[in-house]
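subagent[fold] <- orchestrator: predict structure for attached chain, return tokens only, no commentary.
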Amino acid sequence: SHAAAPPGEPIDSVAGATLLPEVTSYLEEHRIREELEEMINGLRSNGSSGAASLVGPAADALAAPRRAFRTTAEVRSAFIDFFADKAAHSRWPSSPVVPHDDPTLLFINAGMNQFKPLFLGQCKEGTAMSKLKRAANSQKCIRAGGKHNDLDDVGKDVYHHTFFEMLGNWSFGDYFKEEAIDWAWELLTQVYGLPPDRFYATYFEGDEGLGLAPDEEARQLWLRYLPEERVLPGNAKDNFWEMGDVGPCGPCSELHYDRIGGRDAAHLVNMDDPDVLEVWNLVFMQFNREAGGLLRPLPAKSVDTGMGFERLVSILQDVRSNYDTDVFAPIFAEIEAVTGAPPYGGALAADASAVLPGTAVGRDTAYRVVADHIRTLSTAIADGALPSNEGRGYVLRRILRRAVRYGRQMLGAEEGFFTKLVPAAVGPLSAAFPELAEQQDHVQAVIADEEAAFSSMLSRGIKEFNSRAEAIKQAGGGGFDGASAFFLYDSMGFPLDLTELMAREAGLAVDVSGFQAAMEEQKARSAAAAAASKGDGALLTLGPEQTARLADEGVAFTDDSFKFDLGADAGATVRAIYGAGGFVDAAEAGGGETLGVVLDRSSFFSQAGGQVPDVGSLVEAGGGATFRVSSVQSFGGYVLHVGSLESGSLSAGDSVACNVDGERRRRISKSHTLTHAINLALHQVLGEGVSQKGSLVDDSKARFDFSHGKAMSAAECERVEALVRTMVAEALPVHIQTVPLDKALAINNLRAVFGERYPDPVRVVSIGPEVPALLAAPESDEWEQYSIELCGGTHIPSTSDFGSF
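subagent[fold] -> orchestrator:
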């Protein structure tokens, strides 16, 4: 009352109305609304005298629409605050959407991706992650390309996205089902204030074929909150989660929410009904699947949960579409302003043939496509990806071209419109992900170049399509062949749906199966090329099953600290021998089989950070066996020496000497140190917009990958070369020291690869000043003229060893 009138004075209806939002919020926060509903229902059923005067007005008030609950920022922070403050979870940052250290993924597509090393027992010791027991965050995710690909569905409905946030909480061998279920229920019904009678929970019903019993524990835990008819069994497809063919897995429980309420919607759960949606998936990792399908209980059980942020916001803001929330409202407003198109109306097409220029369906489909895709591209580019002709870069290029095509065709947008939308996409996300705002100028520059290039290609592609279509019609054909459709896709950047649209307009049907066949052929060629690039190292890998077996047998991680000193004594013991058929106790020469040898310690450098692995030999102490090492790979702490047995026999327990090809190593080290020098020179010539994206360091060359908005000029290349030659002439010493990570990161001008996880402590490589001097005055401007990097590779002692450059 103090907010509306002085103390003691009556409040009129107008002033009282201003208090309504605060009163409503209070009622919802303290669950008074639900208690009143129960009281009114009780009075109705009793039919007591005098109750009618209360029941009518109160029921009308409670039937009024609930206010939109919260903004996106409040929804996100409420989730993280709940788990951090109430349940002692670490506030863990989102990883970049570009998985710089996970070659199995195009993009981060789930909250748990960055925690895979923890779940697999392969986390580097000393890192902050290795110390985690509980964590919570909102993870940036992209599902476009690869196994999880929602790209072609975006725009057709109101819930698919290529970029989205995944809210999640995790337990790494700490709490399990009871706590996960209790906290999920408390957050949704008490913190977010959602009505309990709208929820349905599923649990794993068991699978005799897999030898799995029903998850009765989860069922009983849910029955504490929900009646039996709203706790539903689910099959392995919906309620048993697996990371892959082998590895951690377990039953899961899903929470589903009925937007409508006041009905029995159990038969609509998991039936793709737009009003009965899965809100939260709680995965209980309690097994490890081994090769052959065998499931073994995990010694430390874990929890991995994921809740779609945009879907949750739509529920809390009481709208039926993710695109009707304030996640997308600012972008829609900017699209309308930039293109001059009518405002978004939410129209949906019955089928793809109805999505045409000049229609409401075409316009609103374009709104959804453009808004989703500008979020995806802004995030991916800010996190270090760039459009290109291969891998994730090709996916990004396709996303951009799809958005530009929809904007130009369906919204009548002019060239350059897409670039102008970046601030509207970045703004709402920047508070949670500040790296987006920091990279906004870079993002706009990249998109501007790509958009201009595609506009030119679009004209050429339309000309190519028309030429081929006319030839087909003149030959009397009624179909546009799949090979031609793939050529437009692969060479001209045409999405298949664009070719199908143009074909329909020309009275032709696209041979989609022929297109898919051409696509599969290309994928096979790409996979073969990727395997070839790894050489013998691609033939053998230690997966979760193999590393778990080694750990169970008491095999300690390989001590490879000797790899930095070629002169160190690295006499070693064979701990395991691994072949295509699995582990063996011994091997004989003459079979020609590729084998992998795990040692207790090694002086071989395994492939990492762009540096190729060492080669050499393992010689049995008595001289009875020689194993030729052609590749070295590291799997979760175990170093696998891959090669072939040239003579004699080798058994687990044998003593061997590690003979590294020293001259080749020295040439590799020279190449590696050279990339550091190039990195410094590039920053000095091109500015701070340069960002390292990788490298290849071998015994014949140094390749340095970096992002820059445009091609370097000849003059810029010459300046970089001159700076490196100056470093050679100065014969700068190369200093290496292991220091605490926080102290290393405080050094001015320190370079680190974006997205890379570094151990703590970490190796600092400095060309010029000694590392103690850097630590003594970390903020000194003097360090800006030197190369200072975090690096786990091998290096030469002085820049004078480079020779000419």
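orchestrator: received. Logging for downstream: The longest helix spans residues 440-474. The longest strand covers residues 276-289.
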